Amino acid sequence: MPPHEGLVHLEEYDWRDSNVALINSDIDHKVKHQSASTEPAWNNGVIGREPGLFIWRIEAFEVVPWPKEQYGSFHEGDSYIILQSERVKKAADEQGGDEDQDKLVHDIYFWLGNHTSQDEAGTAAYKTVELDEFLHGTAIQHRELQSSPSDSFSALFPRLKILRGGVRSGFTHVETNEEPRHTDTLLRIFKHPSAGAGREYVLVHEVEPTWQSLDEGDVFVLDKGDKIFVWQGKNCAPMEKLKAAQVVNDMTIAKHVEVEVLSQAESRSKVVVDYLGGGDINPLETTFKAPRPVSSATEREAKKLFRLSDSEGQLSFSLAKEGNGIGIEDLDGNDVYLLDAGRTVWVWEGRDASRAEKAMWLKVVQRYVAQQEDAAGVSFAKVSQGNEGRAFVTALQA
């Protein structure tokens, strides 16, 4: 199905407000498979056959390959689809005869920028479902929000960078950050705690080039075009300084400009503050604090496992188990389960779950996430029995 024809299905497959009555029906699978078989992005002889990382941006309802040299850079005005395919050993019960003992496992992320449009987000969601269909329904699907990156997504990009601007949407226009002349760019480099114990990721996020964007706990890179300044807050961490050095190295590969590194504790750091409009600000006497552009969902006290089942004649959603003793043995292949693991809500689809159970999972998880106090920071993902992957197993065991 050509991308523009998919518009009639945007409401049906929009993950924010979905009519899911036909999901997992025979007609649903036939429609999606036909659409997937004609989508150029998937039919290149590589997707589903070879391991690797693949990224596409949604542009005017089209799935457009993202340049490999820009992997790790995302614009807050856009929506993207990211596919990570890895080759792993087959489980003992999957191996047979002389068959290849390896298999490909897939994670699909649809990433929504804070300022992406509804049509771009809807297209990304629809095409994510389509890509999963192309991969025979074996992929783990993740909704990824710019405001709260998951651990698994952050781990894909050692140099994750969020930039302002975006492409022209089919319905709306988002200003790009590509100007005919140079405009000052200010990048904030900061630690983001993961849900795992003791682990942190360092993110790079473009912020407004004003002195109010500065924070003494982080590192900032100011690109003036003919010169680059690195401003180190007095309480910044060594890993943030290291990340800043990597960012500056990437920036200077394409252009040879002077780089000056300044600590907030030295008087010359006022040069950066002045460039950012703070002419009357003394950096030695000022406390710089700015809200983080990325939120952190708080861990809830205990994990919860819910069961979605129609085994008694009608569809029910009920708490099956609570606490940190939840294991794979608590999952029944005849049903669908929702695991609230804190920052991520997982949906596990049993191999023999009914059509009704499979059709309702999306609506159930949307309503559940919306009821959480920290819903803005909660991501969700769906796995199918036999294709769980490491992240889901870790969520169970944590």
UniProtKB/TrEMBL annotation:
Residues 63-153, 203-252, 329-369 form the Gelsolin-like domain. SMART domains: GEL. GO terms for cellular component: actin cytoskeleton; cytoplasm. Pfam families: Gelsolin (PF00626). Gene3D superfamilies: Severin. It comes from the Eukaryota. One of its GO terms (molecular function) is actin filament binding. One of its GO terms (biological process) is actin polymerization or depolymerization. This is Gelsolin-like domain-containing protein. It comes from Didymosphaeria variabile.
